[in-house]
Amino acid sequence: MSTKITIEPVTRVEGHGKVTIHLDDNNQVERARLHIVEFRGFERFIQGRPFWEVPVTIQRLCGICPVSHHLAAAKAMDRIVGVDVLTPVAEKMRRLMHYGQIFQSHSLHFFHLCSPDLLFGFDADVAIRNVIGVAQKHPELAVQGVMMRKYGQEIIKATAGKKIHGTGAIPGGINKNLSIEERDALLKDIDQQIEWAQGAVKLAQDYTVSHLDEALAFANFPSHHLSLVREDGAMDLYHGNLRAIDAAGETVFDQVDYANYTNYIAEEVRDYSYMKFPYIKSIGPEDGWYRVGPLARVNACNFIDTPLAEASRQAFMAVTEGKPNNLSLAYHWARMIEVLHAVEKIQLLLHDPDLQGTDLLLKGDRREEAVGLIEAPRGTLFHHYKVNEGGQVTMCNLIVSTTNNNEPMNRAVESVAKTYLSGQTITEGLLNHVEVAIRAYDPCLSCATHALGRMPLEVQVLDREGSVLDRRATR
Amino acid sequence: MATTAPSGVLVIGYGNPGRLDDGLGPLLAAALEEAGGWTDVTIDADYQLTVEDAAAIAAHDVVIFMDADTSGPAPFWFEEVEPCASMSFSTHSISPQAVLEMAHSLLGAQTRGFLLGVRGYEFNEFGERLSPNAVRNYREAFRFMEELLRDRRFDEYAKRYAKHSQPLGDDGALRRQT
Question: Considering the entire predicted model, what is its pTM?
């Protein structure tokens, strides 16, 4: 009889996650799965809403990445109101908001979620392998993390207007520019932020290079990579066309208008997970799955158009001799390259007088259907809407970043389980490595409320027939 | 790290207003902001507590966290929270105890922290409304906060409105194995 071992939850990722490891009769890992308890119903919730309020309403979906949803929805609604190209001030304000979001989210992930693993080792006691441990042993890094996160949030506040239900992006443009006072306040700290970002890249790079053997043995598997790129192939986190490459770097498709994404991407439903499994249609569900996020973006682009980040990208690509890097642990290095790119972009934008422009909004001929797409911190984020003549949303389909990374995360968990599980016992070491593998992808599982007293945690053991052999619940 | 002397009271209401009663915290913050007239009080609202809140906390003498509670006594409870180095289940969001600990250990703050837990009942759907009982609790909590911010008798009120149940926020080590 095969046995199913359940680990729940995965600490230090958002929301609720559960890992099941299925053993065969010889106590060998047959398969492993990451189950994400996704809060469903938002697509129905949005139906019937007036389209113009969706960029604000959609932020209720997630308290972790509201800015990404805000901007993806706004991009879709631009097309609904017939606007394909924004005014310079509108596009640049949105870009500033987005780079602020990338900067703060990646910084938080690196310093407060990932750095404990890198600084103390995967097998370190969880009592010290956490953000407080970092604060005690490396206080300068912990402070940097706080201050970088704070800086990104200040950019969001200056561009979106407020932290909850920001309203900066509206269909066809924006509702505010950046005042001179806001600009100067942000410029005051920019040099420090760039210096810290460079330090973060170095930390991630040094770790990866000095632990290359470990990284090669850890959740290392080939995959396709999907991201937006600019028309000239540059990394572009806000806007561009879709590119997919295979594990060797060969193009699967390129410069695809994301409005036509349904011709290229499909979603598979599997019985054990609420979360769908996207794949490249031309390859099929078995082999067409792909990675998104920092690793995929750095792999897929031809270059980065900011000098410091481009130098870092070249060092990154040199490790694999210019071919795509398929190491799950390389996500951290790629993430820090994007932090550096984001803060370089922020600096350029803050010196751009267009941000004080007053031509904020455009209008065009109404459309009934539109897609908005953005490279959110965790990866490609799809928003697809249909709107009736009365201006009400009649259809909403979202493919969030974590969904795009669903199969790779499952593969990562299975790879680690096969390497580190011995017998039927979940050791602390196995648990740590499973967490590290999932955390590399920075999944957002947070479509759940967080109120005091919530966090019901359940542990289950099931036999092959699915009967529960044991169950434990924490508070 | 704190460069200026901390002063005043910071009030942070957090939760998701799009998830029914989970929005109790930010709704209270909005109501207090709208009421206005406070002396040396800073009011903030967010979806959740995050690490950078430590910087704002360090700039104040007292921080009051306001959150929805799924199981505490109605209409609300109010207690002092101690800095605690426990690890959260996730640190894109962080517990009041942990963010207070970060303010103390990283930024050299001595800020005192208090937590207002307002009982909610409905959390598992999307919706921008409070359940009927949560509305009642919200009103009681608002009146309490008005009085608290006016009188500043934190210790007395924390004793009077204590939850009297298991310790708060022990969200570290939340995993089991079988």
Answer: 0.87
